[in-house]
Each structure stands twice: as C-alpha cells, then as structure tokens.
Amino acid sequence: MSKPVVDAFFVGRALSQALYHELEKTLTNALSDLGKFDAEQRERLRLFTQEVMERASRESGFVMNAPTNSGISGPIGSPIPEPGDLQATIDELRAEIAQVRAQLQIYRSNRP
C-alpha cells in the first residue's frame, strides 16, 4: 500500500473520533440543560401549588371563622350560601344561564 492511502486512513479515523467526542459532549450538555430545566419547572410548579393551597387555607379559615348570619357577601354581592344550600345555588345559576342563553338566541335571530 502506498503512504497517502495509509495517511488518509489515519486522518479519517482521527476525524471520526474527534467528531464522536464533540457529539458526545454536545449531547451531554443538552441533556444536562434539559434536566436543569425540568427540575426548575417542577420546583416552580411545587411552589405555585403550595401558594394556591396556602391561599385556599387562609380563605377557608376566614370563611369558617366568620359569623354565619352577619350579612357577609360574596364577590358579586350575594350572600355566602350555607353548605347545604350549595346545590340549590348551583341549580339557580344554571337556570339563570339557560335564560340568558335563550334571550341571546332570540336577540341574534332578530338582528338584521
């Protein structure tokens, strides 16, 4: 065999090894960054969930400690229902929504 062929073989082999190492380093860095990102997102989700649960606990404590017949209103101005009245309140809201939808359909059908 001639010397240029042998030299070309070793150059090709060295090139493939160098490319392999660069690819390995790049892939390792990418997976490391992905792992860091995943860990950060999990921590943010955990903190967000914890904050939501703390707020719910505070609001629940506020509602439970409030006198029941003191006229406390909800965000819309309606009284806070008793726990047994919750289903009745939901049914009333559904009926109101149905009425609004019916009126909206009538309005839309009468528009020119």
TrEMBL record:
Signal peptide: none annotated. It comes from the Bacteria. Residues 59-85 are annotated as: Disordered. InterPro entries: PG18-like. Residues 70-79 have a biased composition (Low complexity). It holds the Pfam family DUF6825. This is Thylakoid lumen protein. It comes from Laspinema palackyanum D2a.
